[in-house]
Each structure stands twice: as C-alpha cells, then as structure tokens.
Amino acid sequence: MKIKYNYQFFSKFITFEGIDGSGKSTHIKYVIELLKKFNINVIFTREPGGTPLGEVLRNLLLNKLMHPETETLLMFAARREHISRVIKPALKKGICVISDRFTDSSFAYQGGGRRILRNKIKILEKWVHPNIKPDLTLLFDLPLEVAKNRLNIIKSLDKFESKKNDFFHSVRMEYLRLAKKFPMRFRIINSNESIINIENQLQKFLLYFLRENNIQ
To answer: Is ATP-binding one of the keywords (predicted)?
Structure first.
C-alpha cells in the first residue's frame, strides 16, 4: 500500500451494520488500523451505548423484555445522547468516527424484526439527527444458518441474539432493502468468507472511499 499524504483532519462517519453473527465486530479493529496508516485520527464507539447513560440503556435494551415501541424510543434516546456527547464533537474536531451500528440498525431490528412502522422510525430519525448521516456504511451479510451457527458457540446470548430465524430473516431483508435504496453509502461485505478475503474486501472498499475523499 502506497501512502503519499498525511490526513489528520478527516471528519467522516463510518458505520458497521449486519445481523448478529455476521462477524462485523471482528473486523472493526482491522479497519481502524488501516485508517491509522494514513495518519487519520479515529475513534471507535458503539450502539446502543457509547456514553455512560447509553451503556445503562444498552443493558436494558439487550436484556429486558419490553414493548417494541418502548424499545425503539429507548434506542433513539441512547442515540441522541451518543450523537451529542461523542459523534458530533468528534466530527467537529476532524476525527473519523467508527460506530458499531447506527440508525440503520433501528430500521432493520425494530422496523424489520419488531414490525414497527417505517414511518415512525423516520420521524424519530428526523427529530434526533436530521443533519448526521453516515458517510460510509459497511454491511456484513451472510446466510442466516451461518450466522446462527456462529451464535450457537456463544454461551450467553442477549435477547436479540436468541431470536428465531424468521426474525433474523426480516432483519436481513430490511438491511438489503436499505443497501439497495442507498447504494452510494452502502458497501456489502460477503462475510461468509475467510478472514483474509473479508479483509481484502474491506481494503478495496476503504481505499476507494479514501480516493473519493482525495486521500491517495
């Protein structure tokens, strides 16, 4: 990899999405290290969570049963805190933000999986962050049976991870719908590949993204 310039001011927002078991979390470190090779300042965060209050809400959201609309509202409450305390300040300083999930997850899990009306989620999206959108979304996609086999290795599953196949099918279909609707933002990663092949996919997409933003 040929690196010609240092870009310390790179105010971009990159999100990782995918169904549970897709392997996205495994590859976040690789992406961060790749960006750092260009001397890009990077921070990592996650949803739900990312702030002290967000982490409290995360524990509730992942482990407590609740009405789907309550779940959706709490997701956006955590997101509002996350944006104001982490994402927005970092972007203003020229720091690249890497987030494990963002609002696409709400459309996929609460919309696709929980059957919350899409228009309700859009209203919350416009209210909570009308001017904050990911610049790049890496969607890790794979067959449901592969994802479930990976989850079966985990001893303790949260309430989402323990859902049945029809739930994850709906979540996956919503993700693919979003990727089709926003092709300029989404890049689909075939995560049913070896680690080295997935890293090659990520490198290809990221280098193209960097060139689009005048980093060579």
So the answer is: yes
Judge whether 107 and 118 are in contact, CB under 8 Å: yes
**Tens-place pLDDT, residues 70-95:** 999 999 999 999 999 999 999 999 99
pTM, rounded to two decimals: 0.92
* Nearby residues of 148 by Cβ (< 8 Å), 6 or more positions away: 21, 165, 168
CATH topology of domain 13-211: Rossmann fold (3.40.50)
Q: Report yes or no: 37 and 8 within 8 Å, Cβ to Cβ.
A: no
Q: Annotated binding site, which residues?
A: 18-25
Task: Write the CA distances from 213 to 33, 61, 97, 182, 205, integer angstroms.
Answer: 18, 36, 15, 18, 13
Binding-site positions for ATP: 18-25
pLDDT of the residue at 8: 58
